[in-house]
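[INFO] parsing input record for histidine kinase
[DEBUG] input buffer:
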Amino acid sequence: MQAAKVVERITGNAWATDADGNFIYVTPAALAFFGTSLESLNSQLDENTLGWRRVIHPEDYDAAAAAWRRCMQTGGHYNVEHRMLRATGSYGWARSTGQPIRDGAGTITGWYGTVIDMALPPQMGEYRAEDIDDPLADRPARDVLQSMDAVHPHDRPTVEQAAARAFFHGIPQVSSYRQLQADGSYRWVEFRVEPGYGISVHVDPAVARQDEPWTMASSFGETGDAVQAALAIEKLYGGAWAIDATGQFTYATPTAQTSIAMTLEDLNVLLDGKPFLEGGRQGWQRGTHPDDSERAGETLRRALKTGEHWNFEYRVLRANGAYVWHRAAARPTRDEQGRIIGWYGTALDIDVYKRTEAALRERERQLQQLIDTVPALIWSTMADGTPAYVNKPFTEVTGATIEDITAPDGSASLGVVHPEDRVAAREAFLHSVTTGVPYIQRYRQHRAGGSYRWTETRAEPLRDEVGTIVQWYGVSSDIHDLITTQEALRESERHLQQLVETLPALIYCSLPDGKPIYRSQRLRQYLGLNLEDTDGLGKSRLDGTLDTVIHPDDLAVVKERYAHSLATGEPYALRHRLRRFDGVYRWVETRASAMRNGDGEIVQWNGICLDIEDQVHAQDELSRAQENLARANQAASLAELSASIAHEVNQPLSAVMNYSSACQRWLTAEPPNIERAQKTLERIVHSANSAAEVVSRIRALFRQSTDKRDSVELGAAVREARDLLAEEAGRQRIRMDIEGESGLRLVPFDRVQIQQVLVNLMRNGMDAMASAPNDRVLHIRAFRAGDMVRIEVRDKGRGVQFPDKIFEPFFTTKDQGMGMGLAISRSIVESHGGQLWAEKNEPCGATFVFTLPLDVPKMP
Ligand code: ADP
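[DEBUG] output buffer:
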């Protein structure tokens, strides 16, 4: 009786969850016992706390929850003891056990288990009698349902364990315990439990021997206990029944009869007049689902004939008209000679399990659908790498089925991997399979159309509870666009790099603090230095570099300007001497500016360095030419001055003339006045000397202007004049337009002097346009006019104000002017046989024109 109750209790407290641990079923009795509901169990109390904390003792919850979470992760069996809060408000120890349900592929689809209240408290009996709709409830509860109190305290664990073992392992358990009698004494009883029911019988301790086979028949044979046995059977969870060797029902619990609304007679009636064993249909088959009825009959008939256990699942027609899944089991009882004398069996309501199973299958189907609809290529292999599964997208996208990726020997063929990537992929995969490290590999993967696309494949091992790898799960994602974009980026970077490297300049980059981080190849070659070469000198890389490559005389200013730019972010620009790899210092112009990010912060300095050594030389040349010109200018000025000086020479000469005639008069007078003549002669000598002095002074002044007439090409002189003024013109934003007839051969002329004329006229033109608002153009034209060359310098200035005076020496309208330019120019031109004059321009400006004689070939 006790055992029966224990089993009832066990089967009563079953539960099932889905793969995520959400309860999908808990037997109503358990819910009532713990005063909870599915919703409450499944609710989330907070982020980390599950609803079932409400029914677990606070001190036990954490350990239980941790064990549960671990089981969910590993798939290990759940087996935890903890105190549980009953509906009555008291705590009692309970053991909760559970195990996963897996599908064919080994995936966990759900969990099922039981909760056994280990204390088996007396309240349990009371609760059952009151709350369960029991056909026997009208009997005094204590008559039928004895509590664990009736079991001797020492024997209680034995009873519980036997009941639990029978339930979990399905192995019948036979044991004995001391049962409390009405008079307060204990009596040994033997009990037997099987999954689904239990029974206990009184035995004589002297007779009861463990090795003696216990049979149903003998138990029923015991006087007085037969009633108790029958009562026990009636309390079985589900229906208990017995049939004779021909399949005729000899017993069925009232519960069972009520639930299917059939009496023993109804069960036994022959539906087609033929005995059951000879293939006839029996009344009970009417109470089973038409689809199951035939096979139920057949299998039972076979069992009756062979003596094999009968086990069958079928749908039973309930009194209320609904079909409910049952599992029926029966085994024969034999007499002492081993002859079958009857069968006893049970019918368990497994509808809940069937429905749970169906629900799990549905979930599995949904999961499968999910796996097939996610836009990822999913596959799995066995622990040894044998392909086990590919999802639908995998086959659709790669065009490969599971067979296509399996080699003849069963291993993974990697047939979808590009041949060039296959060796590496196989190596990595084998490595993962042997070591268990996650697999991650990028390769080109075959596409159904025949192309290949870059794919990243990752796989992780699935392990069982002891850590052994059961399967590998992999997913391949298309990263082709990413890879090609990266490739394009790299290409553009390479392009840019090439651009920087081939620019005819020395290029470098530095960090915001000035530390050099990049030098173009040209710069590295120019300096003969790599970035790191100046490291380790005990100073920053910037200082190390500057100290090494900058001319010592320029170093201080370079450093100061660098520091200024780095501090302020202002561009850096400086000309200085830079040490080339061969130790030669060359002039360079360095410019650097800051590169900023979106927030305006400096992220880098980019610099460029140009070798201007040749330019500097050209500048020197220019200065020298200018010096020459200045000297020529001076010489020409003196030439002009000499004209006025001639006037000075004239005076002593006139005096000499006058004194000479006077002297002649004194000598020719009667008598000649020698004394006066003598005096006059002295004056003559004096005047002649002073004239000679003037001449020699002038000579000395002219000694530099050696009048070399050797040039014949006017164009060269014009171009040189232009070059001399180019910088100045640029500064004043004046454009110089030069036009010239080619092949003009002149009578040999002094290039320096003619150049000076040109420079004078051009500079005057530029001066005249200094205040002109725009259109500052200076035209220089040279063309033939008869047997002369006519050279014009035309400006767009304000025109000549004093045309009568401008050619006079020392006439000027300029603050800094000398007023000698035009006078000298005219004397030079005239000394070359030409003429110089000014003309008026329309609408504004002046044109200065001069002519020079052409070298006209003489007639032979
Ligand atoms: P300077 O240039 O030193 O004044 P110049 O003999 O070259 O001496 O010129 C004399 C003067 O002639 C100038 O001060 C200026 O008034 C006038 N002049 C020369 N060239 C021009 C010109 N292109 N347009 C207007 N005035 C000019």
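[INFO] The pocket of adenosine-5'-diphosphate is lined by residues 760, 764-765, 768, 795, 797, 799-801, 806, 811-814, 817-823, 846 (CB under 6 Å).
[INFO] shutting down worker
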